[in-house]
Amino acid sequence: MAKFYQQSLAERHATLIAEQRLTAAQIEQLKAAAIIAPEVADSMIENQIGQFPLPLGLSFNFLIDETSYVVPMVTEEPSVIAASSNAAKIVQANGGFTTTIQERAMIGQLIFTDVSDYEAAILLVQEKEAALIEIANAAQPSLVKRGGGLRRIETRIITDDDHQPAYFTVHLVVDVQEAMGANMMNTILEATATPLKEWLDSAVLMQILSNFADTSLVTATCRIEPHTLTTTRFEGEWLAKRIAEATRYAHLDPYRAATHNKGIMNGVDAVVLASGNDTRAIEAGAHAFAVRDGRYRGLSDWKVAENGDLVGQLTLPLPVGSVGGAISVLPLAQLTQQILGISTANKLARVIVSVGLAQNLAALKALVSEGIQKGHMSLQVKSLALSAGATESELPLVVAALLENKQLNLENAHTIIAQLRQN
Ligand code: NDP
């Protein structure tokens, strides 16, 4: 028998059955879930046995830079989409989100060891800048034709824990146009590493892009009149002050900041995933940015302005692409791009950061008032009933019974289903 990675998809399925890991019926279930052509899926990852669908939903009410968007989101978590739609509606009533992008570029790192004279190394890189730009751009001529390429070179001396120089690192800042650019960047880095190593007379530890993409920062802001936050139970002005206070707290306490940022990433990841972009790259960049001054902090900022308005701001590194990677390969990524109605990475990044800010507003508003559980659990009841085994016809009855007796746990769901089946 060939090794698993050498087997065809049919052979892998047969192996799973032979080893009694899955039944023939389960293999049919796997096959039914597949929409990407098997040979495409096989070329995307290793040891592929099937596909893993996640729910795709739409978030509404997003008014961003005076344009309305319907935002596709892929998530397995209930209440994320409802929360972002609700918060976006409040922001929409206040004029919507305004976004800015300072720059859109990727950083690639060339890391050198055994450098004896760091100051001389810096001077040498400056001297060779024109030559390096030429070598880098020759490695990706199609990128240069599209208006991209190496924009600038920066040098860094990396110190150890005793503050002694330990490594010499060269940053290549590359305009990657419409791509996320990881592979392009790595090609450019490979081309520049060898001559640079010779000029510096040192050794290369590695060359790889940095996911701390602070050259791709995108900011969303919004201004909310407090009365538009008012609910049946809570007054808007009071909510605005508490949201600002909650942000201050997340700025100071990493234990809270992690959860604050997780809430933001609930929205960000869902749009990134729906667009076919790399969620891990965006997550890594966001958390590195959150700890940029040495203390892990909440990523967003909410303040009450002098006139009483609640002013929100979120800045994130968002090196997303509109082409390349899995985007052009995943059939549903094309479809979500169509729903969103945009085809540029620049606009996608503006939408993503706005969704992050909306998600954060929704979470903070709930947390500082009635608590997250009320809204969250009422939406989670359906999942709870399904996990307990409710059939399609039992589902509305189980949901109603769970909401009525308010014990939203699996044991209670099982009891309700058992009682229903006895009757
Ligand atoms: P690709 O390797 O797919 O390169 C981009 C492709 O898009 C190129 O083939 C390019 O064509 C094409 N293209 C078409 N139009 C444009 C345009 N207007 N602007 C730019 N490119 C265009 O993808 P990336 O380099 O973007 O790399 C992204 C992938 O890398 C992701 O899948 C990511 O998961 C992965 N990755 C991530 C890493 C990380 O985050 N640390 C590390 C390594 C990989 P042409 O060839 O003609 O230029």
Write out key terms for the chains shown:
423 residues, alpha+beta, 3-hydroxy-3-methylglutaryl-coenzyme A Reductase, Chain A, domain 2, Alpha-Beta Plaits, 4 domains, 16 helices, 10 strands, 49% helix, globular
3D structure, described in words:
The chain is built from 16 helices and 10 strands. The chain is an alpha+beta fold and 423 residues long. The protein folds into 4 domains: 41 residues, no CATH class; 199 residues, 3-hydroxy-3-methylglutaryl-coenzyme A Reductase, Chain A, domain 2 (Alpha-Beta Complex), CATH 3.90.770; 105 residues, Alpha-Beta Plaits (2-Layer Sandwich); 48 residues, Helicase, Ruva Protein, domain 3 (Orthogonal Bundle), CATH 1.10.8. The strands form 3 sheets. It has a 4-stranded antiparallel β-sheet with strand order 3-8-10-9. Strands 5-6-4-7 form a 4-stranded antiparallel β-sheet. A two-stranded antiparallel ribbon has the order 1-2. Strand 9 and strand 10 form a beta hairpin. The mean pLDDT is 95. Bound molecules: NADPH dihydro-nicotinamide-adenine-dinucleotide phosphate. The site of NADPH dihydro-nicotinamide-adenine-dinucleotide phosphate has 20 residues, from helix 7 and helix 8. NADPH dihydro-nicotinamide-adenine-dinucleotide phosphate (NDP) binds next to helix 7 and helix 8. One of its GO terms (molecular function) is hydroxymethylglutaryl-CoA reductase (NADH) activity.
